Amino acid sequence: MPFRKGSNQSIYVPLRTKFIVLFCLLITIPFLVIGTISYKKYTAGVERSTVELSNQVVSQININLEHYIKELDRLTLTPLYDEDMMQILRKHSSSSGSANTYLTTDETLKMNLFISSLAFDRGEIESILVFTNDGGIFSNLDQSVRKRWDRSMADWMEAVEQEDGGLAILPPHAAAYYTEAKQGIISVARVIREPYTNDKLGIVKVDLTARGFGSIVSTVRSSGSGLLQITGKEQVMLYSGPDGLPDSSESYITASARSSYTGLKVTSLIPRTQLREDARELTNSTLIVSIIALMAAYAAAILLSNRLIKPIAHLQSKMRQVKRGLFLERATVTTSDEIGQLTEGFNTMIGEIDRLVKEVYETRLKEREAELLALQSQIHPHFLYNTLEMVNMLALQGNTRELSGVVTSLGKLLRYTVGRQEQMVYVLDEVRFVEAYLRIQGMRLGDKLQAVIHIDSSFDYCVVPKLILQPLIENVIEHAMGQDKLQLALTASVEEEDLVLSVKDDGLGITGERMQELKEQLYQNKSRPGMETEQGGFGRIQKGFALRNVHQRLRLLYGEPYGLTLENTAERGVTVSLRLPMNWEAMNNAGPAGDRQEED
Predict the structure, then answer these.
(1) CB-based contact 93:133 (threshold 8 Å)
(2) For residue 277, what pLDDT is reported?
(3) Regarding predicted confidence, which is higher, 142 or 252?
(4) Helices and strands counted in the chain (H then E)
(5) How far apart are CA 163 and CA 449, in angstroms?
(6) What predicted TM-score, i.e. pTM, was given to this entire model?
(7) What is the tens place of the pLDDT at every residue in 444-454?
């Protein structure tokens, strides 16, 4: 992601990234809020439904349990309605333990048959027992139950006797009257009394198997619905299943109901983790669908961001091109919204800027052309005076040949500067103009000036601006000439497909500070206050103005990196170079100026 520091040290974040982050937040935050609220409401709804269902289940179990206890209640009352059973119990009602109280075979057979008929097809009943007052035991399990009992085997009898003939529901207890002692027996029992005297005749007891209470619960409960507890008086636990006691570290949803008939309390405990497990599959499916929907929303956000940013990015690219000076570029208007209006405004602004730049450029170019024409139309009075003085001396000396050469060269200078109005010439024109100028200066200065022109004929017809070489030569003669001889060389070369014209001298050179001043004047288009003016070239110009004039003309015509450069040479002297594009355009004139001058 392209983050970077801006100019004011603030972090730069692209607009596209901001849009994507904003859209993703606008999607994610409501999604999380709605998802969280929905999950909580769903969980609360499931819990509420579970509580309602548990209440219904507990109520139904309580009803079933009442019916079952009522059946056992009626079963324990059955001996009261059988006269044979009552006679046997009356016979053994004495607790003195006399000899005639022992059970006879006939009594045992009758009692056991009667009890077995009561337990027939009742799988939840472990055994039905009748305890006589004199210590006898009758049971449908003849071989598994002892024949006699005593108080050490019957701790539970006290609770039964306290009910005074009512039905007693006994919590899990030890049953020592079995030949193999059993633990955790749940039973119902009652005291059998004489109907007329209310005397105690014995106790009938029904021991239930582990399936006893479980069968009642299983008729209503479905598997995996938690724990179920049945408690009696004083919260004595009668049953806890199917997995034993609850985990103290677990949180449960509870529902309970107490029977007014039996006094038993039925409690349902459903672990909250079980609810979460039940909802896990739905939650996972919802999560997968939500993630897919979220990814699709993110993709849509990215596509929408790209669509919004595309015209802005297009406008930004056009602005970069305009920043590089390409004012012909126009942005394409693709929308009719604010961005489209901004693009239209940008195009209008660039068109106006392009028009103004062209006006300024053309105005400055015309100003330079006017300066050049003014430069061409003027003759340096001092140069003209020296030349005419030299003509006079040659005439007095009778040196007609040299006199003819000076006059011919002066005529070429006048024709080139005054007679011709075109602004672009061939390199050969400039070279011949420089040759004529050097011929006159050579006659005036003699051996002090040695000039060499090394320009290959292949450059002759390359088109260049007019009057760009002579100011460089004049600058050397005016400022580099000392007491010693001055050598200068004019050369042409090709560098990176550009034409480079150089004037190199071995004159006085320029100090580093002065060189810096000249470069500031040259490249920054400024002159130092109080700078002196002097004659130079073919017009009255400021010192250094001729070089700056040439440089700015090239910049106006061709732009960067074209123009003039100044450098001190390694030994001594200065090298002035002009960089121009290679231009082989055909001129309207028949040939170079030198040829035409010779013809004239």
Answers:
(1) yes
(2) 73
(3) 252
(4) 14, 20
(5) 151
(6) 0.48
(7) 888 888 999 99
The CA-CA-CA angle for residues 531, 537, 542, to 5°, reads 15
28-56: average pLDDT: 83
Q: Is 594 exposed, middle or buried (0-12, 13-18, 19+ CB in 10 A)?
A: buried
d(CA 360, CA 68): 113
Which residue type is seen at 194?
Answer: E
Write down the mean pLDDT value for the chain: 79
Q: Are strands 498-505 and 574-581 parallel, antiparallel or unpaired?
A: antiparallel
What whole-number distance in Å separates Cα of residue 420 and Cα of residue 418?
6
Superfamily grouping for domain 378-599? Histidine kinase-like ATPase, C-terminal domain (3.30.565.10)
pLDDT digits (tens, 9 = 90+) for 301-310: 888 878 877 8
The span from the CA of 205 to the CA of 422, in Å, is: 141
Determine the pLDDT at residue 211: 67
- Would you state the structure tokens that stand for residue 274, as one six-digit string? 């079980």
Buried/exposed code over 167-182 (b: 16+ C-beta within 10 A; e: otherwise): bbbbbebebebbeeeb
Q: For residues 306 and 286, what is the distance between their CA atoms, to the nearest angstrom? A: 30
Lowest mean pLDDT among 143-147, 479-483, 525-529, 545-549: 525-529
Tokens of 322: 């305009």
> Which H or E element spans position 568?
strand 563-568
CATH code reported for the domain at 14-308: 3.30.450.20
3-state secondary structure 549-593: HHHHHHHHHHCCCCEEEEEECCCCCEEEEEEEECCCCCCCCCCCH
The answer to whether the beta carbons of residues 326 and 309 sit under 8 Å apart is no
Number of Cβ within a 10 Å radius of residue 304: 13
Whether 426 contacts 595, CB under 8 Å:
no
Q: How far apart are CA 545 and CA 533, in angstroms?
A: 9
Distances (CA, A) of 542 to 223, 254, 534, 549: 112, 108, 6, 10
The CA distance from 52 to 62, in Å, is 15
% of the chain surpassing 90 pLDDT? 11
Pairwise pLDDT comparison (508 vs 87), residue with the higher score: 87
Which residues touch 346 (CB under 8 Å, ≥6 apart)?
315, 318, 319, 331
Pairing type for strands 498-505 and 463-465 reads: unpaired
Q: Are 131 and 149 in contact (CB under 8 A)?
A: yes
Rounded CA-CA distance 221/61 in Å is 8
| Rounded Cα–Cα distance for residues 598 and 591 (Å) | 11
pLDDT in tens, 302-336: 888 788 778 877 777 777 877 777 777 777 777 77
Which token pair is 510? 């320029």
**For the chain, how far is it from start to end, CA to CA, in angstroms?**
74
Q: Do 14-308 and 378-599 share a fold?
A: no
What is the residue type of 48?
A: R
